[in-house]
Amino acid sequence: MKDGQWIKINDAVTNRDGRISGKQLIADDAFVPGQYRITFDTKSYFERHNIEYFYPYAQIVFIVRDASQHYHVPLLLSPFGYSTYRGS
User: Fold this and answer.
1) What φ, ψ does residue 62 adopt, rounded to 5°?
2) What letter would DSSP give residue 30?
3) Domain membership flag for residue 62
4) What is the pTM of this model?
5) In this predicted model, what pLDDT tens digit does every residue of 3-24 receive, in sequence order?
6) Strands (DSSP E) along 1-88, which ranges?
């Protein structure tokens, strides 16, 4: 977020393990302290697998205070719920 507005940085698709490398999302030199938002397109996944779902997308907003640290932001997903946490 910059000046109260969200700035789109990138798009990425998860691999077979459901993961995206941080370097796929943002270059190291562009990763600075601030507020970030990741939007997961869960609808496409569930529809591709013919699974009934409740949430068409999940958004995670988080704050980076020290960009030199490692940030792992997992999304644990089921058709009718999701959770997240700051991983290690």
Assistant:
1) -145, 165
2) G
3) yes
4) 0.86
5) 889 999 999 988 888 888 767 8
6) 34-40, 58-64, 75-78, 81-84
